[in-house]
Amino acid sequence: MKLITKHNFFYIVCVSFTLITTGKLLLEKIDGFTDRYYSENIFTILAISILGTLVLATHYYLRRFPFIPVFIGQYLVTIGIVCLAIRIGREFTDFAPTAYKDMIISVTIPFVIGAIVYYVAFFHEIKKANKLLENMNH
């Protein structure tokens, strides 16, 4: 069962982007923090939203493997791509000394929340399909 398709991919990215950006703005408002790299961070959030959605969409192709290794693999791929992007970005601009730690935290929280939402919806759909099959057999 494919939950993320080419028809709803853009919608899911937009919802993810909006929720993450809103969370970022709320935390900054509560903390009284002013982000001097606001525009760069907004584009980073968009890239992370696209990356997270792409990685979670691979579950359909990995469904024959156990859930836990797939989830861990998806997380590691996401973090690996983020770390690679930081490594490449450091060749062109300055990054904070804590860039890796900051980005891992910034990616982990939305990724885990997104994965929970995705997998709860996925297992709900499976349960619904099994119930429908059970009703058809009786």
Describe the structure.
The protein has one domain (9-137). The protein is 76% helix and 0% strand. It has helices spanning 9-31, 38-57, 67-89, 99-137. Helix 2 packs antiparallel against helix 3. The longest helix has 39 residues, at 99-137. The mean pLDDT is 85.
> Helix proportion of residues, in percent?
over 70%
Give the structural class: mainly alpha
SS element count, helices: 4
The major pleated sheet works out as: none
Number of domains: 1
Number of strands: 0
Looking at the structure, what is the overall shape?
elongated
Rg value: 18 Å
* First-last Cα distance: 23 Å
Overall mean pLDDT stands at 85
Poorly predicted regions: none
N-to-C SSE series? HHHH
Beta-strand content bin: under 5%
